[in-house]
Amino acid sequence: MFDSTMFWVVLFGLPVVAIGVIIALAAYQASGVQQDGRDDAPDDDSSAG
Q1: d(CA 27, CA 35)
Q2: Is-contact 34 41, C-beta < 8 A?
Q3: pTM
Q4: Which residues, at least 6 apart from 16, have a Cβ–Cβ distance to it below 8 Å?
Q5: Residue 45: which residues within 8 A CB-CB, separation 6 or more?
Q6: Cα separation of 16 and 22, whole Å?
Q7: Which of 9, 7, 12 is nearest to 20 (CA)?
Q8: Spatial distance between the Cα atoms of 21 and 19, rounded to a whole number of angstroms
Q9: How confident is the model over 17-40, as pLDDT tens digits?
Q10: What does the DSSP 8-state code read for residue 37?
Q11: Of 32, 49, 21, nearest to 41 (Cα)?
Q12: Distance from C-alpha of 28 to C-alpha of 22, rounded to nearest angstrom
């Protein structure tokens, strides 16, 4: 087989890395979403109809 230490590193390391990447992507998307020129933000004053 393979070393049990490598098994635990893979078992716990990869999910931690994946969570870190997801959080980083979420923070990146949240920081730039208002400056990218899209008009999908809810405007309370302009959408009164």
Answers
A1: 14
A2: yes
A3: 0.50
A4: none
A5: none
A6: 10
A7: 12
A8: 5
A9: 999 999 999 998 888 765 556 566
A10: -
A11: 32
A12: 10
